[in-house]
Amino acid sequence: MLSATNNEVVAATGADEGYALPLAVTVRSAIDSLSADARLRLFIIDGGLSPETRDRLEASWQDPRVCIEWVDPDIGAVEHLPVSDHVSTTCYLRLMLPECLPGDIGKLIYFDADMLIRRDLTELYAEPLGDDLALAVQEMTAPWIDSELATADYPRRHPYLSAARPVANYRELGLRPEAMYFNSGLLVIDAARWRREDVGGRVFDCLEANRDHVLWWDQYGLNVVLSDQWRALDPRWNQTAGAFAYPSWRESPLGEEAFRNLRRDPWIVHYCSPTKPWHYFCDHPFRKDFYRAVRRTEWRDWRPERPEGVLPLGYEFYRQKLQREFKRVRASTIGRLRRAA
């Protein structure tokens, strides 16, 4: 094990067999962005990886600055919770992390396994937690608990929101409508308080008690339990697909400069939409960066698998892309006309 230093980053991520490739890329990109004098102590939650895949992952991450420690959680504890076609039970395992790790871990970065890390994680780790339980990035297309009440620009913003009220029953839960809502794919956690206050257990209880209202899996429970107990990071630490949902900064929850910086120079790219760079059809602006990172791993010869019925699938993909572009241009034109009136 690496000896602890003042420049050591403690982090965690995890995946199952289906996400082995993006996990390899996520961690490889974190290592490549790490400063020369930094150390990374990385815990990997094994959500069902084969021994061969583990070996392949470790070979992809060879670096004297990095110590990999595997965590084998109790998958059975989360198997009853809802999943989708691109989100597995592994997403719930982050809730158990602080309890699964050594007791001396006081601060921890958690990141999803579908990311591209483009900036030194020592900078993120240096962010002070203060009195907050966690640091995170505001969700771009669900920015507040109730966007209609939280912002005067709601009519302009509403067409681009994925959820105006991501916690639909927030009133019954006593949450403030103007409280910010975060994306849980990137978290800086006060692990000691997390254990002491049983945050993971409270989130599981919340998910069970509010099954009819749960949206976006564990993210719902985390936003309920941590409401007003987290602080917002620079949006560049978690550029989600929502960064490209808005025709301009005016419709987004960000100012002009912050919006421009987020789109052009994200510090972490989060491939959180259903279509990922490892799928055959993907037009993500940072997909080529993902491919370059793949070549730094043991998956260097990988290519996206060509699906059956590629022609009709391709037609539908580009039809939807043109439709989105038409809506974007129309909304932008209407906005300019209104401002000129």
From TrEMBL:
Matches recorded under SUPFAM superfamilies: Nucleotide-diphospho-sugar transferases
A Gene Ontology molecular function term of the record: metal ion binding
The organism's place on the tree of life at top rank: Bacteria
InterPro entries xref list: Glyco_trans_8 (IPR002495), Glycosyltrans_8_dom-fam (IPR050748), Nucleotide-diphossugar_trans (IPR029044)
Entry keyword Transferase: yes
Gene3D superfamilies, sorted: Spore Coat Polysaccharide Biosynthesis Protein SpsA, Chain A
Protein name according to UniProt: General stress protein A
Gene: gspA_2
